[in-house]
Design brief:
This protein has six helices and eight strands, in the order αααββββααββαββ. Strand 5 and strand 6 form a beta hairpin. The termini are far apart. It has two domains: 43 residues; 191 residues, no CATH class. Helix content is 43%, strand content 20%. The protein is an alpha+beta fold.
Length: 246
């Protein structure tokens, strides 16, 4: 039982006893003190725990981001599924790229940290939206926890699981490699409906996939997000190193 509920129960018990004693003996002071304790117990009982308040705050923030994402996807008519780009000369921390078309092409030489809308390209298939910072801060937290750079996918699974659990964002992170195929299962601690996440993810999932891209040194292309009994299952695949796309 939560501490707040135990405290409320004790206050109610003491308040009831004081109020009864005051009423029987005509002691107004005890009666008032007892009534005050009963009122206070009711207030304490209705307090939300800090974990609930944190969860509610995260839900609200991610709902706002989801609304923004839907507006961008619809307004820019972005059709492609997200690419997670590892760090290289133009993007020192890597980035998240949402292609305009499903049959995309990628020219990493045209990407940089100061660009968002990639339109000045010879082929429409190279157009898209670049999000250099989405999930970046969480990746930095992973490496801070690890006390070094991410160098393997098992490291990403371990540190992402620990950091996200400590932050109250996820209960579990599982990552499986099978050749070029990547499967990620995230059990979030917030309301999550993976609609359009393969085209515009939340920062939590983005950070995990950015971590995988950085650790493997390869571009990671998302294939699907699906809600399962274990959480959100993400299927993705390695698309080769950045220099292979130059």
């Amino acid at each position: 039982m939560e501490a707040s509920k135990i405290s409320a129960g004790l206050l109610a018990l003491i308040g009831g006893a004081l109020a009864l004693f005051g009423f029987i003996n005509g002691e107004t002071g005890y009666l008032n003190l007892g009534l005050a304790s009963l009122i206070l117990s009711a207030v304490v009982f209705t307090f939300k725990s800090s974990s609930y308040v944190r969860k509610e705050s995260v839900d609200l923030l991610l709902k706002s981001q989801r609304n923004l994402a839907d507006s961008l996807l619809n307004g820019l008519a972005l059709e492609g599924k997200t690419l997670y780009i590892p760090p290289y000369e133009n993007l020192q921390d890597g980035g998240v790229f949402i292609p305009l078309r499903e049959d995309f092409d990628l020219d990493p030489a045209r990407l940089d940290e100061n660009s968002a809308f990639i339109t000045d390209v010879p082929d429409e298939r190279e157009m898209g939206l670049l999000l250099p910072t989405l999930g970046k801060e969480l990746v930095e937290k992973y490496e801070e926890y690890l006390e070094g750079p991410l160098t393997s996918v098992p490291e990403v699974e371990s540190v992402a699981g620990s950091v996200l659990k400590a932050l109250g964002l996820a209960k579990r992170v599982y990552i499986e490699e099978n050749g070029k195929e990547i499967t990620v299962i995230v059990t979030p601690n917030f309301e999550c409906s993976p609609t359009n996440c393969e085209r515009f993810p939340c920062p939590v999932c983005a950070s995990i996939l950015r971590g995988v891209a950085k650790a493997s040194g390869e571009i990671i292309a998302v294939e699907s997000f699906e809600e399962t009994e274990f959480g959100v299952e993400i299927r993705a695949k390695k698309m080769g190193r950045v220099e292979e796309w130059m």
